[in-house]
C-alpha cells in the first residue's frame, strides 16, 4: 500500500534506562516529529546476577506503557512499533513483562538483537543528517549496551553491540554514585576490554566524522556547552577530561553541581562518561557531534518501509540468507507459489493483515531448505537453528523464531514445535507450507488444479478445529505418491488438537 501524507506513525523505544515514545507524521517522503515523550524507567537496574528482571522493574515499565497507551489513543495498530533492547534481551523472564506489556499496548513488543538495534540506530541518525560522502562513525551509549556503526549516507556497513552501558557501568564501578580515580581506572580498563576486538574495524582511519546518539552523549554535550567548554552539539576530548576532573572533585554524583545536569541523568553519569572517554581513547576520537536521530527515528523509518513489500528490508535479508546457504531458488519459488495458492483459499477477514501474513509465509517457503547446506539429514532442524541464531537485518527476535518454527515444522512430526501454534493463524500457514512441500516433492511444478483447502465443518472434524483437503476423484490414481503423502499428512495432524480430513469429490 502507498503511504498517504498526514499518516501518523509511532515508535516506542523500551530502553534499559528510559522508555521513549516518538510520534511522527509522514509528509512527502519524510517523517516530521509530532510529539516526543520520555520517562526514566531504569529497568536495567532491575536485573539481578541471574538475569531475573524484578517485579518492581516490570511494574515501572508497565506503568509507563499505560501512560504511553493513553497518548496513543485510537492509533491504528499497524502504525505502531515497539522495540525492546538489551535489558529485555538479557532477562530470562522477559516473557512475563512482554505478555503484560503487549496486553497494555495492544501491539507486539519486538525484542531486537544487538546488531539489529545498531542498524536501526544508524537508520535513525542518518535520516536526519545531510547527504554527504563522509564515512561516519555512529555511537549510542545505552543503559546496558553500546552500539557502534560505520556507514556512509543511509547505508550501514559495519555493526557492533557491546554489553556495557551507563546503567551497568554505574552500578558496577560507581556504586552509590561514588567517583574515585580507581573507579574510573577500572571502568576504563573494562570498557577497553569490551572494545578490544573491534578496534581494527572502528579505529581511527576507518571513519571521517564521529556522531553520538541518545542520552549520554547529548547530556555530556549540554554540560560542556553550558560550562563554555564546547560549542553546542559537540563533545571534545578536552571537554570530556574537564568533566571527569569535575566529577572527581565532587567525589559523588549527589554533590556534582553542573548547569544542565538533570536528576534522571545524575545516577548514571559516571558509567556513561567512563564509557565515552574509553571510546575517545581507543578509537582516536578528538570530537564527537551530537546526532538528533537515534533508535526511535530508525524504528519510524523502518515501520514506513515495512508498510510496503518492495522496501521491506526483511525480504532482502531472506534473499541474502538463501544465497548464503545455497538454497534451490527454483524449488523455493515452486513451494512459495503453491503455499500461497493454498493459503488464499482459507477465509480471511483483514486485507492488510492478510498481506503481511502472506509475506511471512513467502519467507518461510523461500527459506525452508537452507538447512540442507549443513546436512540433508534433519535439514529442517538445521534450518530452524540457523534462523534462531542468524544476524538478520530487519527482523526482531520473535519474528525470526516465528520463521524458524515454520521451517522446523514444514516436515515431520508436529509435536516438536515449541510455540502455542494451535490457536491463531500459525496453523493455517504451517499447513499450507507442509502441503506445498508435499505437492512439490518431485521438484517440478505441481498438479494442484482442483485441489481445495477449507476449514472443516464441526461434523467433519469431530467438533474440534480442523481443515479439509479436497481432491478430484481421479487425482489419487493419477498421482499415487502425492496421495500417499497426503494420507500420511492427515495422520500427522490427527495426533494434534487440529484435524485434517482428505476427501475425494
In short:
This protein is of the alpha/beta class. Helix content is 46%, strand content 17%. The chain has 19 helices and 14 strands.
The radius of gyration over CA amounts to: 26 Å
What is the strand arrangement across the widest sheet? 8-7-6-9-11-10
Tally of alpha and pi helices: 19
CATH architectural name of the largest domain: Orthogonal Bundle
Helical fraction: 40-55%
State the total count of DSSP E strands: 14
- Estimate the mean pLDDT confidence: 91
What would you give as the CATH superfamily of the largest domain? Hypothetical protein af1432
Question: How large is the share of residues in beta strands?
Answer: 15-25%
SS class = alpha/beta
Query: CATH top level of the largest domain?
Result: Mainly Alpha
Q: How would you sum up the global shape? A: elongated
Fill in the CATH topology of the largest domain. Answer: Hypothetical protein af1432
Low-confidence stretches: none
Distance between the termini: 39 Å
Please summarize the sheet with the most strands. Answer: 6 strands, mixed
Tally of separate domains: 3
What do these coordinates show?
The protein is of the alpha/beta class and 505 residues long. It folds into three domains: 8-113 and 297-303, 2-Layer Sandwich (Nucleotidyltransferase, domain 5); 129-291, Exopolyphosphatase. Domain 2 (Nucleotidyltransferase, domain 5, 2-Layer Sandwich); 312-504, Hypothetical protein af1432 (Orthogonal Bundle), CATH 1.10.3210.10. 46% of the residues lie in helices and 17% in strands. The protein contains 19 helices and 14 strands. Helix 5 (166-173) crosses helix 10 and helix 9 packs antiparallel against helix 10 (269-283). The longest helix is centred in the N-terminal third of the chain and has 18 residues, at 55-72. The protein is elongated and about 90 Å long.
Amino acid at each position: 500500500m502507498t503511504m498517504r501524507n498526514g499518516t501518523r506513525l509511532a515508535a516506542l523505544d523500551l530502553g534499559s534506562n528510559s522508555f521513549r515514545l516518538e510520534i511522527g507524521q509522514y509528509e512527502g517522503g519524510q517523517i516530521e516529529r509530532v510529539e516526543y515523550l520520555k520517562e526514566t524507567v531504569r529497568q536495567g537496574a532491575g536485573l539481578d546476577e541471574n538475569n531475573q528482571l524484578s517485579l518492581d522493574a516490570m511494574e515501572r515499565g508497565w506503568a509507563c506503557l499505560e501512560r504511553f497507551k493513553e497518548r496513543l489513543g485510537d492509533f491504528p495498530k499497524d502504525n505502531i512499533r515497539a522495540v525492546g533492547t538489551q535489558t529485555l534481551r538479557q532477562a530470562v523472564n522477559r516473557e512475563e513483562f512482554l505478555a503484560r506489556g503487549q496486553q497494555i499496548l495492544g501491539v507486539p513488543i519486538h525484542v531486537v538483537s544487538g546488531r539489529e538495534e545498531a542498524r536501526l540506530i544508524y537508520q535513525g541518525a542518518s535520516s536526519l543528517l545531510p547527504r554527504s560522502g563522509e564515512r561516519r562513525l555512529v555511537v549510542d551509549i545505552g543503559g546496558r549496551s553500546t552500539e557502534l556503526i560505520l556507514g556512509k549516507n543511509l547505508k550501514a556497513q559495519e555493526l557492533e553491540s557491546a554489553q556495557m552501558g551507563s546503567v551497568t557501568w554505574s552500578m558496577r564501578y560507581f556504586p552509590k554514585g561514588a567517583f574515585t580515580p580507581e573507579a574510573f581506572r577500572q571502568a576504563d580498563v573494562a570498557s577497553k576490554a569490551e572494545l578490544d576486538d573491534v578496534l581494527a574495524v572502528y579505529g581511527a582511519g576507518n571513519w571521517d566524522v564521529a556522531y553520538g546518539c541518545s542520552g549520554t552523549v547529548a547530556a555530556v554535550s549540554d554540560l560542556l556547552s553550558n560550562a563554555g567548554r564546547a560549542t553546542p552539539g559537540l563533545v571534545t576530548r578536552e571537554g570530556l577530561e574537564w568533566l571527569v576532573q569535575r566529577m572527581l572533585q565532587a567525589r559523588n554524583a549527589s554533590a556534582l553541581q553542573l548547569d544542565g545536569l538533570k536528576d534522571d541523568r545524575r545516577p548514571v553519569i559516571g558509567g556513561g562518561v567512563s564509557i565515552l572517554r574509553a571510546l575517545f581513547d581507543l578509537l582516536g576520537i578528538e570530537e564527537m557531534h551530537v546526532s538528533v536521530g537515534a533508535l526511535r527515528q530508525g524504528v519510524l523509518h523502518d515501520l514506513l518501509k515495512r508498510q510496503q513489500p518492495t522496501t521491506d528490508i526483511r525480504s532482502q535479508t531472506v534473499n541474502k540468507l538463501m544465497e548464503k546457504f545455497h538454497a534451490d531458488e527454483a524449488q523455493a519459488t515452486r513451494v512459495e507459489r503453491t503455499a500461497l495458492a493454498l493459503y488464499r483459499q482459507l477465509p480471511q477477514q483483514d486485507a492488510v493483515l492478510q498481506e503481511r501474513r502472506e509475506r511471512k509465509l513467502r519467507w518461510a517457503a523461500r527459506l525452508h531448505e537452507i538447512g540442507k547446506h549443513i546436512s540433508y539429514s534433519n535439514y529442517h532442524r538445521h534450518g530452524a537453528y540457523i534462523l534462531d541464531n542468524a544476524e538478520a537485518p530487519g527482523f526482531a527476535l520473535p519474528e525470526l523464531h516465528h520463521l524458524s518454527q515454520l521451517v522446523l515444522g514444514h516436515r515431520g512430526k508436529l509435536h516438536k514445535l515449541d510455540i502455542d501454534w494451535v490457536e491463531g493463524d500459525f496453523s493455517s500457514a504451517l499447513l499450507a507450507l507442509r502441503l506445498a512441500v508435499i505437492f512439490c516433492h518431485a521438484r517440478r511444478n505441481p498438479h494442484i488444479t482442483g485441489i481445495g483447502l477449507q476449514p472443516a465443518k464441526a461434523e467433519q472434524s469431530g467438533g474440534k478445529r480442523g481443515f479439509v483437503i479436497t481432491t478430484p476423484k481421479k487425482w489419487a490414481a493419477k498421482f499415487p505418491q502425492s496421495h500417499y503423502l497426503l494420507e500420511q499428512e492427515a495422520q500427522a495432524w490427527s495426533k494434534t488438537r487440529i484435524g485434517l480430513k482428505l476427501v475425494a469429490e
